Description:
The chain is an alpha+beta fold and 139 residues long. The protein contains 3 helices and 3 strands. The protein has one domain. It has helices at residues 8-17, 63-114, 120-137; strands at residues 24-31, 36-43, 50-54. It has a 3-stranded antiparallel β-sheet with strand order 1-2-3. Strand 1 and strand 2 form a beta hairpin. It is rod-shaped, with a radius of gyration of 29 Å. It starts with 7 loop residues before the first helix and ends with a helix.
Amino acid sequence: MTIPNLTPEHLQSLLDGATEGPWRLHDCESYDGRTTTHYQEVWSGNLDVIVAEVFRANNDGGRGNMRLIALAPDLARRVIELEADAARIRAELAGERANADAMAAALSDCGTYFGGHSGVGVRVDSALAAHTNLREGVK
Length: 139
């Protein structure tokens, strides 16, 4: 199975090329004079375009698939939003890591300078060890 391209840019291009949402699921039926056929359609938000149609694809008439199809534009927009949030959080984390590294360097200098004075070196070493453990644990 090929993994689909789910980058925000690709999803946005798919949204730009699709019928505008939100899409709505409608239960339908038709009668040909002898039998009644039940099926589902997914319509555009303003009900002027049929986006998809399923005739008895499953025991539920394909309703589960159609609900998912109807949500496709909303799901794509949500993935784009979440990817933007994740990128912002990664950038903030990188900034925090840089701050922590600068503080660790400053602490290291203090430990070198105050190493022999009333346990300061031990406290600085403990702080540096905690920084290293935190840095190694959060990649």
